[in-house]
Design a protein that fits this description.
Layout lengths: L17 E7 L3 H9 L1 H7 L6 E7 L6 E7 L5 E12 L3 E9 L5 E14 L2 E13 L4 H4 L2 H21 L1 E6 L3 E8 L3 H9 L1 H7 L6 E7 L6 E7 L5 E12 L3 E6 L10 E10 L2 E9 L3 H11 L1 H22 L1
Helix pairs in contact: 1-2, 5-6, 7-8
Length: 323
């Protein structure tokens, strides 16, 4: 990959061009899907910490692009574009434009993405050519290489989840949805999710410990627990069970009191048999989009759910080996 620290504001400039090649341990069709499905694009597009509250990605020749990238500090960076060529699953060509506050293009880029099958893995090459740049473009273009590499890191993480049987996404306006396929029976996974001893072994992101003060597993029952962060901070939680249907479905609501974290959302956990394995779907619904986004930013709700799944998978495997 290469980048030249100069920009020519003329109509034909290649001085900021990039060529980035990655090899993903995922089949080409899956990598293609993550580049053409707006649900996937919304989850990995942009540098680390960015979200995409608006993501329109009509992956067909002539289809329109409009993405509003929101930085961790709340600043929104809008872009528009048009697809020029789609050759499934080999090649995507599209124009993109970074927009200023008035909706005018600050620079236009021709992007070409190539996908080559490498014995079950996928070699992806991104070619970026700056076609037109205004005088204000350099302050943005100087971070383009870092931004693209962080985006592709996020893409790689999403592909790893999919290959491992796990998908996590902030969907709609108020939701977070995650799925994971566990190599264990539904009865065992249900026990891992409802037995206070087992829950304490895996609950929380990596590096956390959990103390369960109360776990009254019945509709209307109260679940009180403390998550001890690796930095020494304690996160108190108060949960009320709303529905319990063994071994298929759990519904519970975070209902804060004056001692617990000020977060409120409803979680539905669905367990489905997939042969001798178990598919778990976690659907979290927040009162508003702003509260969902606050939980993603402040508490790392999306990444936290991903790590929950990972720790649960490890505990399930360990427990299975002990049986």
């Amino acid at each position: 990959m290469a980048a030249n620290p100069k920009v020519n504001p003329s109509t034909q400039s290649s001085e900021w061009d990039l060529v980035i090649t990655r090899v993903f341990d995922a089949p080409r069709q899956l990598v293609w899907q993550t580049w053409t499905d707006p649900t996937h694009i919304q989850q990995w597009w942009g540098p680390k910490g960015f979200t995409n509250p608006r993501c329109e990605w009509d992956a067909r020749a002539g289809g329109a692009i409009r993405i509003d990238m929101r930085a961790p500090d709340g600043v929104v960076y809008p872009m528009s574009g048009t697809f020029k060529e789609i050759v499934e699953p080999e090649r995507i060509v599209f124009m993109s434009s970074a927009l200023d506050d008035q909706g005018n293009s600050m620079f236009d880029i021709l992007n070409t993405v190539l996908f080559i099958d490498r014995s079950g893995k996928t070699e992806m090459t991104l070619q970026v050519r700056v076609m037109k740049a205004t005088a204000v473009a350099p302050q943005y273009l100087k971070g383009m290489e870092i931004g693209w590499n962080q985006s592709l890191d996020r893409l790689g993480a999403r592909l790893a989840e999919a290959v491992a049987g796990s998908e996590i996404a902030a969907t709609g306006e108020r939701d977070i949805v995650g799925t994971h396929l566990f190599d264990a029976s539904r009865d065992l996974v249900w026990k891992m999710w409802t037995d206070r001893y087992h829950v304490a072994q895996w609950w929380g992101p990596k590096g956390f410990r959990t103390t369960i003060e109360k776990m009254d597993l019945r509709p209307g029952g109260e679940w009180l627990f403390i998550m001890h962060g690796p930095d020494g901070r304690d996160y108190r939680n108060r949960v009320i069970y709303r529905e319990i249907k063994k071994p298929e479905r759990l519904v519970y609501e975070n209902v804060p009191d004056d001692r617990s974290e000020p977060v409120r959302f409803v979680t539905t956990v669905t367990l489905a048999e997939e042969g001798d394995k178990t598919s778990v779907r976690v659907h979290m619904v927040f009162p508003t989009a702003a509260e969902r986004d606050h939980n993603v930013k402040t508490y790392g709700a999306v990444e936290g759910l991903r790590q929950h799944f990972g720790r649960l998978a490890d505990h399930v495997q360990k427990t299975s080996e002990e049986v």
